[in-house]
């Protein structure tokens, strides 16, 4: 038994979980082509959820701040991107990939800029007065989420908004009898690129070192002479911008969005952060991939269980590892 | 010449009054030892100096400058380093990362690094290992080394011998003697043997008040006073 567990941890430990889940799904699903389609969808979804969740995880890790309003950045990002894409409809439909890209970049940039500005405002005005007071944090940030949802309702109306996709990301690749939606592959690759960039910043730069140390022991970093609160606002803004970018990508993935998006994603994002272990970017990625894969596999195998599957996953993980799969602090 | 002076310092933690009246004068150079039973207020005293708790206004002066009300970060930047009771090691970071974090600019002075390696050879050996994998004694060495990776005016060290094997405590004493050549140390201890071998000046704190202050020599000579203040625990 100990031998088995030693071998498992040498092979990757908890990182094997998504592999195990997909192997089991492969057996249960039976049809390889459906399995590939579902796995790609799950990975793409996981990467987008990772973008949405990573900021929340770091924000909690660094300052113990529970921001239930975090997913407001996701839904605003989605709606802003949708508006920009609709506005640049001519470019999207053009045959030129360059014009397509330009429209997409404009939408993503708008979402990111919104995330940065709204993150700055939110941290300064709403979060700062309630540092170190969890109950008031929960109340005030949940309130902010509701306000954001109403604001979206007021600006964009209540009916579902359809989101145009750029021409070059339409359709699917057909490899044998396997179909892979191009947008999904794109979402996966973009998410992966952001993860690698984030990982590099955290592990190769001085700011990243301060963030990792601050997540472990904020007080000690301050006793060494570095202001965590000034670092924190930067992390908060970056996390908000990533959430908005995640929302923008999600809009193109779903192609139909409603103002309830924020509240729906809030649950998913919290589950991911708790599964992964608060404050850890690798943990968040792991949690997001697991949630993305499970949602797609279960949605195919037992659609009625799809909603419950995330909760079941979270409970199982917490029973097994109360601090999440890969917590930041050892 | 007084480096650090506490005058009638009072500190509340939340609604609890923990320190009632703490006054000490730490001269520049050498080791000043603060003794006292468990729960007497030693840790709270160090944390108050560091600004991690709020002491009464005007009660802490460092080189004549009032420290009360300053942010911990600004206190640290005056050249005061803190080695907390739990060591404050970043377990997920390597030994090197723990050390480089404590430098102001993110680069090592090679001469200083040699000095650190000479003091604590084990750190060089485990330089690129994650800090959680170190033994208790090595973690304590890392915590002390981190505090002096750049020259400091004053180091506050909280019970560095707690839980360490006798051989390691001897190493630690030698290192402290070396460090005290160039830096003032305010050492909190319950291990009287260790403390007496290092300190020139000392004070005893009891229930949030200074019960005695003087030279180590006088205190060591007065066993009745030791019994009275430190009891059988020492
Ligand atoms: N965070 C805290 N909240 C409430 N009381 C505390 C806290 N920390 C310490 N105390 C109390 O303050 C007193 C002094 O504690 P401390 O300074 O840690 O003592 P020492 O370091 O001398 O053992 C103790 O009675 C302790 O219970
Ligand atoms: Mg103590």
From TrEMBL, chain A:
InterPro entries: ABC_transp_permease, BCAA_transport_permease
Pfam families with a match to the protein in the record: BPD_transp_2
Localization, UniProt: Cell membrane
GO biological process: amino acid transport
Record has Lipid biosynthesis as a keyword: no
Membrane-protein topology: Multi-pass membrane protein
Transmembrane segments: 12-29, 35-60, 72-92, 98-126, 138-162, 182-202, 231-253, 265-293, 305-322
Keyword flag Transmembrane: yes
Keywords carried by this UniProt record: Amino-acid transport, Cell membrane, Membrane, Transmembrane, Transmembrane helix, Transport
One GO cellular component, as annotated: plasma membrane
CDD domains: TM_PBP1_LivH_like (cd06582)
One Gene Ontology MF term: transmembrane transporter activity
Family, similarity comment: Belongs to the binding-protein-dependent transport system permease family. LivHM subfamily.
Protein name listed in UniProt: High-affinity branched-chain amino acid transport system permease protein LivH
TrEMBL record, chain B:
Keyword Nucleotide-binding in annotation: yes
One biological process term in Gene Ontology: L-amino acid transport
Record InterPro entries: AAA+_ATPase, ABC_transporter-like_ATP-bd, ABC_transporter-like_CS, BCAA_Transport_ATP-bd_LivF, P-loop_NTPase
Keywords: Amino-acid transport, ATP-binding, Nucleotide-binding, Transport
Domain of life: Bacteria
CDD domains: ABC_TM1139_LivF_branched
PANTHER family tied to this protein: ABC TRANSPORTER ATP-BINDING PROTEIN, HIGH-AFFINITY BRANCHED-CHAIN AMINO ACID TRANSPORT ATP-BINDING PROTEIN LIVF
Entry protein name: High-affinity branched-chain amino acid transport ATP-binding protein LivF
Native organism: Pseudoprimorskyibacter insulae
Lineage: Bacteria, Pseudomonadati, Pseudomonadota, Alphaproteobacteria, Rhodobacterales
Underlying gene: livF_5
């Amino acid at each position: 038994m100990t031998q088995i567990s030693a071998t498992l941890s040498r092979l990757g430990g908890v990182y094997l979980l998504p592999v195990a889940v997909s192997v089991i799904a492969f057996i249960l699903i039976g049809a390889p082509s459906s399995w590939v389609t579902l796995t790609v969808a799950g990975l793409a979804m996981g990467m987008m959820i990772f973008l949405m969740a990573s900021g929340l995880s770091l924000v909690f890790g660094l300052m113990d701040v529970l921001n239930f309003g975090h997913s407001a950045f996701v839904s605003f990002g989605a709606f802003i991107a949708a508006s920009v894409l609709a506005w640049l409809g001519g470019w999207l439909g053009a045959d030129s990939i360059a014009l397509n890209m330009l429209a997409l970049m404009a939408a993503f940039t708008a979402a990111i800029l919104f995330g940065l500005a709204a993150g700055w405002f939110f941290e300064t005005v709403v979060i700062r007065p309630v540092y170190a007071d969890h109950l008031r944090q929960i109340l005030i940030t949940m309130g902010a989420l509701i306000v954001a949802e109403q604001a979206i309702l007021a600006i964009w109306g209540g009916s579902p908004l359809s989101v145009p996709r750029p021409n070059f990301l339409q359709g699917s690749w057909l490899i044998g009898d396997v179909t892979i939606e191009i947008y999904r592959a794109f979402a996966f690759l973009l998410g992966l690129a952001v993860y690698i960039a984030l990982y590099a910043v955290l592990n190769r730069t001085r700011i990243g070192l301060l963030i990792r140390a601050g997540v472990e022991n904020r007080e000690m970093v301050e006793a060494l002479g570095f202001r965590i609160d000034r670092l924190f606002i930067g992390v908060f803004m970056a996390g908000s911008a990533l959430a908005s970018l995640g929302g923008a990508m999600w809009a193109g993935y779903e192609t139909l969005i409603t103002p309830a998006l924020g509240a729906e994603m809030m649950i998913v994002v919290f589950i991911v952060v708790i599964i992964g272990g608060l404050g850890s970017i690798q943990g968040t990625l792991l949690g997001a991939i697991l949630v993305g894969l499970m949602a797609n596999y279960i949605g195919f195998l037992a659609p009625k269980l799809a909603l419950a599957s995330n909760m079941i996953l979270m409970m199982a993980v917490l029973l097994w590892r109360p601090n999440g799969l890969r917590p930041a602090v050892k | 010449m007084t480096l650090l002076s506490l005058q009638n310092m009072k500190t509340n933690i939340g609604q609890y009054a923990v320190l009632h009246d703490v006054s000490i004068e730490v001269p520049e150079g050498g080791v000043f030892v603060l003794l006292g039973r468990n729960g007497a207020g030693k840790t709270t005293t160090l944390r108050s100096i560091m600004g991690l708790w709020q002491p009464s206004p005007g009660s802490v002066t460092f080189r004549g400058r009032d420290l009360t009300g300053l942010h911990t970060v600004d206190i640290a930047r005056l050249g005061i380093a803190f080695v907390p009771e739990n060591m404050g090691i970043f377990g997920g970071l390597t030994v090197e990362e723990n050390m480089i974090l404590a430098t102001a600019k993110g680069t090592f002075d090679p001469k200083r690094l040699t000095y650190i390696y000479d003091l604590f050879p084990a750190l060089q050996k485990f330089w690129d290992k994650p800090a959680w994998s170190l033994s208790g004694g090595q973690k304590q060495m890392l915590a002390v080394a981190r505090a002096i990776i750049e020259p400091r005016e004053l180091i506050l060290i909280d019970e560095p011998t707690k839980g360490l094997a006798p051989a390691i405590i001897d190493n630690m004493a030698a290192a402290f003697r070396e460090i005290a050549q160039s830096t003032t140390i305010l050492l909190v201890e319950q291990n009287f043997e260790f403390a007496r071998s290092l300190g020139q000046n000392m004070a005893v704190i009891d229930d949030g008040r200074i019960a005695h202050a003087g030279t180590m020599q006088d205190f060591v000579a007065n066993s009745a006073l030791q019994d009275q203040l430190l009891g059988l625990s020492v």
